[in-house]
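User: Could you go from structure to sequence for me? I need the amino acid at each position, not a summary. Structure tokens:
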């Protein structure tokens, strides 16, 4: 389903290497729409320290579905 929607996602310049090129549209959409975070269980996102640091510097936090309730309750 996501692949069908990917061409319609907003885009932004992503100047950091992304381990899985299929994840690039998600990163670009998060940046273009000034998202607070990306919620995912995808290990490519979760274990890529350079990508996480790059996104965090731009105000986008990567979190897991398990961590999300605690973040929402803290807000």
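Assistant: Here is the amino acid at each position, in order:
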């Amino acid at each position: 389903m996501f692949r069908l929607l990917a061409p319609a996602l907003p885009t932004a310049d992503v100047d950091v290497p992304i381990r899985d090129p299929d994840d690039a549209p998600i990163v670009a959409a998060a940046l273009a729409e000034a998202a607070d975070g990306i919620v995912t269980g995808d290990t490519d996102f979760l274990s890529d320290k350079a990508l996480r640091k790059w996104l965090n510097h731009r105000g986008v936090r990567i979190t897991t579905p398990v961590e999300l309730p605690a973040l929402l309750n803290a807000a």
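One structural detail worth keeping in mind: The radius of gyration is 12 Å.
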